[in-house]
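Protein in question filed below.

…
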Amino acid sequence: MGFGLFLPEFKTVFSLSSGTAGLISGLGFLGMLFGLISAYGATAAGGPRLPVLMGLFSATLGMGMIAAATSLPVLATGVFLAMTSAGFAWAPFNNAVHRQVQDGARPAALSIISTGTSLGIAAAGATAFAVGGSDLSWRVAWAAFAIASAAAFIGNLGALRDVAGSPGPVSILPWAVLLRRSAMPLYAISLSFGVTTAIYISFAADRIKQSGGLPQLQPDMSPAIIFVSFGLFGLVGLTTGRCVELAGLPRLLRLLMLASALSLVLVALAPTSWTGVLLSACLQGGFVMMMSAILALWSERLFPNLPSLSFTTALVAVTGGSVLGPVGAGFISDSFGAAPMFVATATISLVTALAIRRRHIQDRKIAG
């Protein structure tokens, strides 16, 4: 999130093209993939607290490197390390919830955990807004991010004390079960989600600033508006469990994919409109947070005895799309422009929405 938020500044300081920025963003998501894979073994060895703490340590180190970076290799390394934190920390919380929370309360717990990201995004956007409206360097914001990460490390050290230690013997990975046809829609939708949201996160702020920014606002402050709105409206993710009950999973997935498509089109066609930018950010924030919660809920329902591994598998699909999406989008943007790139990305969400069929979306137990 922070890389996309400060991409306009990084382009100026490090002379980045959109293609190079896409490569760095893709490298960051590759770091998340590394974290996801490593987290499974770390959870088996020391319970879910170990990978969460490993991730927060990596985040603190990576964001500190970004704050001090004076060369492109240091910046890229910092992005990679900071992004591993998402991979290390995300799935283990599913494991912790499965062990500590009763069945009836799990949907709410998983929604709260996934949506907690929203407040962090909004805080990051507010920090960027303050920096953009002052004489402070962007490095101050990244130093603040690193300090916040260190505080989160200390907080989780105590909060996850009850789930420290080995969760028990780990059996051979049940790939035959995880890769059953019934689970393929979960992975396909995860892949689409990863491609589109990574492109938005990486390039939306830069699209707004390069277009001249929002009227009556300093250009350096415009990107922050996207992430503040994104984060605050993302709190709608807290209602995900209830929305699944009311609308059903297939219908809700179609609506979310259509929201993603509209969000991307608005960035492409109305990058200097307050209405267009705010609506785009709110739609994308709701899409990302509700989809994150859905993937946790859906994978836990499909594989109740494999909560961490099944969610990790879904997140690997998300991350695979997130690696490929920004890399391709960056070079398309350099060749054809940002607006066509965002429109092309919107078609991915649209096609995904049209492809969703109720008979393909299974969310009942398939692994005993």
About this structure: The radius of gyration is 19 Å. The chain has one domain: 2-167+176-360. The CA atoms of residues 97 and 252 lie 24 Å apart.
